[in-house]
């Protein structure tokens, strides 16, 4: 029976949940925690299931050929395996997409209906209504039109929001208004009332959003970052908020996580901090997808593989 370790910087109780969920679906494999394998067994492991593993954890398995990530983001794995022959499959899960779309709808409505202003007014006992605008008069710019971005666009469009998407390359099959490339990014920034960032972290997206980009926006635009923290320059974001270029930011991802207690985001009146909860992985649905990919890979069939040059 083949051993498949579940490797990650996650609590041991969560590792055991993954082991049980995977064993229920593919009992022909022996899933286990890394410390349950003797060294000679580790040397023969070819496949692994990973959840944000450290390079040190992965180095214990010198014969790895393929890993299935149970997270959508794979930038750390790309850095770890760059230049190697190891293949990485990231999690593409419809349930994850649905959860992200739910969060996008929640926070877009929160900002559109001025709930952030009412929350601030309550602190000073201010009774003041703000003008109502239909969602049809609000444009949500979405950066990233992959699985997550497309699901969010669909959910927001159903609620009446106008969608203007942006991606690295053209998306000719997208049903939503969209653009691409540097010039296209400027267009999206200029037209959006709310900007929803869902971009993965790559060499091309690191610090993509700086003060130069915020100066291209409508004055007072609101920002939601559910992608990756380092795609947004943190000090420039604060400058944009304090200067009025932006009016509010909902942040679920950060350059350093957990966000340090001394970080200025925690106490900024125009920032809502969330602890990376916009789209948590469902163990049940992710285990189904992992089981299917594992059987395919073991049978020599093709599975989706991360492009290390693109970073996703």
Overall SS class: alpha/beta
Q: How confident overall, as mean pLDDT?
A: 96
What profile does the largest beta sheet have? 7 strands, parallel
The backbone outline, from C-alpha atoms, is elongated
The CATH topology of the largest domain:
Rossmann fold
What letter string, H or E per element, gives the SSE order? EHEHEHEHEHHEHEEHEHEHEEH
Number of helices: 11
Separation of termini?
Answer: 32 Å
Biggest sheet, strands in spatial order? 8-7-6-9-10-11-12
Please compute the radius of gyration using only Cα atoms. Answer: 21 Å
What's the domain count? 2
Q: What fraction of residues sit in β-strands? A: 15-25%
Helical content class: 25-40%
Low-confidence stretches: none
The CATH superfamily of the largest domain bears the name NAD(P)-binding Rossmann-like Domain
CATH class of the largest domain, named Alpha Beta
Give a count of the beta strands, DSSP E runs of length 2 or more: 12
CATH architecture grouping of the largest domain: 3-Layer(aba) Sandwich
Domain D-isomer specific 2-hydroxyacid dehydrogenase NAD-binding: 108-278
Pfam families: 2-Hacid_dh_C
GO molecular function, one term: NAD binding
Keywords: NAD, Oxidoreductase
